[in-house]
């Protein structure tokens, strides 16, 4: 049989409205893996990302911080936390437009993949929950059931494109007939790897590139409550700026709380 087209969706701010690592910071905090200070930093980083987009240097610093942060965490404990809180965390922050597009591609016979630099322990169950056919994510080294602080694959930038090409070879996919969706210029290699690149809620750099190359530009603004049996609209027309304002307020509140009553980090750094 001939190769089939597919659709590749970036996760953060393309399928869900916030970075997935920040989205799970609450459950990780409640389970003692994160301190309030680190949760505040995560939320503040999310606000900056939403306002200014991702830069290579910023993403690299985040990668190194996450490596140090998760060193010593039990892999099965992380999986358990994600599994038990997935519906609560992801359900209300998923873009309805993304879910509709996923369904359209699958109805047309195309496989759908969620592609993210976040850890596989988050991305893989999240992809299944959202009904995708596969996932591409960062994989961490594990020894004796605990993270070593090293990465086997960091699915970011050119690595995303390499992983997509590997998936195409493995699953017999036609990339020239495939689609890719992302919000960030850091995903330019991923977008260039397919025949139909699409910018979704693009940062300033990606918006300029998309306009120069006549790529479609989509705005996702409606949210859906996702359940195992499907999804239903949550609220229409909620602008990204409003989300950023709410997150900024939460981050400021947490930062002030930490300043008033410092709490030692509960993580292995």
Proportion of strand residues = 15-25%
In CATH terms, what is the fold-level topology? Rossmann fold
The secondary-structure element order is EHHHHHEHEHEEHEHEHEEEH
Which structural class best describes the helix and strand composition? alpha/beta
Enumerate the strands of the largest sheet in spatial order, edge to edge or round the barrel.
Answer: 5-4-3-1-6-7-8
Report the average pLDDT across residues: 81
Shape: globular
Number of DSSP E strands? 10
CATH architecture: 3-Layer(aba) Sandwich
Q: What is the domain tally?
A: 1
Q: In the CATH hierarchy, what is the class?
A: Alpha Beta
- How many helix segments? 11
The largest β sheet comes out as: 7 strands, mixed
**Share of helix among residues?**
40-55%
CATH superfamily: HAD superfamily/HAD-like
Query: In angstroms, what is the radius of gyration?
Result: 18 Å
Low-confidence spans: 235-269
The separation of the N and C termini measures: 50 Å
Write up this protein.
This protein has eleven helices and ten strands. Helix 5 (75-90) packs parallel to helix 7 (120-129). The chain has helices at 20-23, 25-30, 36-52, 56-70, 75-90, 96-107, 120-129, 158-171, 188-192, 204-213, 240-260, and strands at residues 6-10, 94-95, 111-119, 134-143, 146-153, 179-182, 196-200, 217-218, 223-227, 230-235. It is globular and about 45 Å long. 48% of the residues lie in helices and 21% in strands. The chain has one domain (6-260): 3-Layer(aba) Sandwich (Rossmann fold). The strands form two sheets. A seven-stranded mixed sheet has the order 5-4-3-1-6-7-8. The chain has a three-stranded antiparallel sheet with strand order 2-9-10. A hairpin with a 2-residue loop joins strand 4 and strand 5. With 269 residues, the protein is of the alpha/beta class. Residues 235-269 have low confidence and may be disordered.
């Amino acid at each position: 049989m001939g190769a089939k087209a597919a659709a590749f969706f970036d996760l953060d701010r393309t399928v869900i409205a916030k970075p997935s690592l920040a989205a799970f910071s609450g459950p990780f905090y409640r389970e003692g893996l994160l301190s309030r200070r680190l949760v505040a930093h995560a939320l503040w980083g999310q606000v900056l990302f939403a306002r200014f987009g991702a830069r290579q240097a910023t993403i690299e610093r985040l990668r190194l911080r996450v490596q140090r942060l998760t060193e010593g965490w039990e892999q099965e404990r992380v999986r358990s936390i994600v599994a038990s809180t997935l519906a609560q965390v992801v359900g209300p922050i998923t873009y309805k437009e993304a879910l509709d597009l996923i369904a359209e591609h699958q109805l047309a016979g195309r496989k759908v993949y969620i592609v993210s630099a976040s850890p596989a322990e988050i991305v893989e169950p999240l992809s299944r929950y959202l009904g995708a056919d596969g996932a591409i994510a960062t994989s961490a080294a594990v020894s004796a059931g605990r993270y070593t602080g090293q990465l086997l694959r960091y699915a970011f930038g050119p690595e995303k494109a390499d992983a997509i090409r590997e998936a195409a070879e493995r699953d017999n996919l036609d990339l020239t007939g495939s689609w890719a969706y992302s919000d960030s210029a850091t995903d330019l290699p991923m977008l260039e790897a397919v025949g139909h690149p699409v910018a979704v809620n693009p940062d300033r750099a990606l918006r300029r590139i998309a306009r120069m190359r006549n790529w479609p530009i989509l705005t996702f603004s409606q949210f859906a409550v996702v359940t195992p049996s499907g999804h239903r609209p949550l609220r229409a027309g909620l602008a990204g700026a409003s989300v950023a304002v709410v997150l900024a307020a939460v981050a400021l509140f947490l930062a002030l709380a930490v300043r008033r009553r410092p709490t030692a980090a509960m993580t292995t750094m």
